[in-house]
Amino acid sequence: MNEVDLAEGNYKAVASVIHQMTRRDTVQDPETVLNGLKWMAAQPDYTKLPFSYKDTGIQVSSWCRFKTMSGQEYVNRNNSEELLLPHSCGPVFSPVSFCNGLFLVVNGDLSDPKSQVVHSTLPASLWEELETDEFFKSLVSV
Fold first, then answer.
1. What is residue 121's predicted lDDT score, i.e. its pLDDT?
2. What's the confidence (pLDDT) of residue 95?
3. Which residues contact 41 (CB under 8 A, 6 or more apart)?
4. What average pLDDT does range 91-109 have in this prediction?
5. 1 by DSSP, 3-state: which?
6. Which residues lie closer than 8 Å to 96 by C-beta, 6 or more apart?
7. Residue 92 predicted with pLDDT over 80
8. What element of type H or E holds 83?
């Protein structure tokens, strides 16, 4: 199936191709993948990982339920000694990983229907702009 067929083909045909690709013999078993992710998460300096993110990358979705942040500690924004574990984060590997204004909103607390969690990867320049926006700051509860 070529790019045009994937982009414009019917969902059944595209789903069939994806189904076949993800079940090839070249796909590693889940335990091997999990061990690799745990090893990456345990590295103190992601810049020293032996991967070339210019050519490829890795993305771990929160849907996969891997504990990718286990063993990591982060200082909170107020520079106090209290350490915080991020709910979800990861380095951006290439410009294509940026979502410029696109984000995922999920219900963060089922007991509070107004509670929403937004996961977004944005360029630093956009974050700088958002951090000066009073309306945006009123929505953030960090």
1. 64
2. 56
3. 67, 68, 69, 70, 71, 72
4. 50
5. coil
6. none
7. no
8. strand 83-84
CA distance 95 to 49: 19
- Is the dihedral angle over the CA atoms 79, 80, 83, 88 positive or is it negative? negative
Using the predicted structure, report yes or no on whether residue 138 has a pLDDT greater than 60: yes
Higher pLDDT, 91 or 9: 9
- Predicted TM-score (pTM) of the model is 0.26
CA nearest neighbour of 60 among 85, 41, 86: 41
Question: In the numeric block, which tokens belong to residue 54?
Answer: 């210019």
- Give phi and psi for 141, each to the nearest 5: -120, 40
Q: Tell me if residue 106 falls in helix, strand or coil.
A: strand
For 103, the token pair is 């984000």
Indicate the domain borders of the chain. 1-47, 53-141
Length of the chain counted residue by residue: 142
Percentage of residues of the chain with pLDDT beyond 90: 0
